[in-house]
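Hi everyone, sorry if this is the wrong subforum. Our group has a chain we'd like a structural model of before ordering constructs, and none of us has done structure prediction before. Sequence below.
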Amino acid sequence: MPSDVQAESPSEAALPSRSVPQQTTFREYLESLLVTILIVLYGTTFVVQTFKIPSPSMERTLLVGDYLLVNKFIFEGRGAWYEHLLPYRAIRRGDIIVFKFPFDDHPHYVKRVIGLPGDRVRIVDAKVYVNGALLNEPYVVHDPAAADLFGDDFPPTSHDFLEGRLRPEWAADILNHVEEGELVVPPDEYFAMGDNRDYSWDCRYWGFVRRDAIMGRPVIIYWSVEANSGDYANDDFISGVRGMVRTLLHLPSRARWSRMLHEVH
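Answer:
Right subforum, don't worry. Here is the predicted structure as tokens:
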């Protein structure tokens, strides 16, 4: 007979049962576990999410091997009714954003917002101008020896040299957004670039970031280890386990303790 069946007679019901406390404890553990899972799922869906930096495109702001907490509970613009009740704000020029790459298998990218919807963006002699004004960019790193096609001047004004250097979709569309030598950002889209300007595969090469692709803003580095892009070249399960083992074996020497709990700007 199943252990949770109770006696019907008063005499039997009055007898102490040793199984009840065990059942109650198990039920409490199960309820606590389910509540914890729901909170974690809710948090990672609506509030925060973790993200690792696999490339040097945002150096020196973010380094390969930095692990971030991304605030998903910050940007308005999706049109949801609760945006007027909760502490959302508009995306600002200079915000670092995490978003889904518009092509392939849609991996997550991290870049800095340079152009807002309606902005006119232009690069002249490696300096960025937005709506005709020079943009102050203390975070940018330049390498004079780098061969960056659009590091010095952007946008292009003709189809010359576009093929093979840009995403085919962007090469066919970019000139539709160029007016008087400036790139005009469409509604509900953003223009973003990496801080490591000459080594960043960004909007100059594949197009705009749609608002609905933006996941959130990284707010803090919660963990950081010495790494290079090769450590994250393969994102399969086996490679992930190997990378974890290598990190644990060299933890004292590879950990960048000074970057722990470092706020992201």
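For your construct planning: The two ends are 63 Å apart (CA to CA). Residues 48-224 form a domain with the Umud Fragment, subunit A fold (CATH 2.10.109.10).
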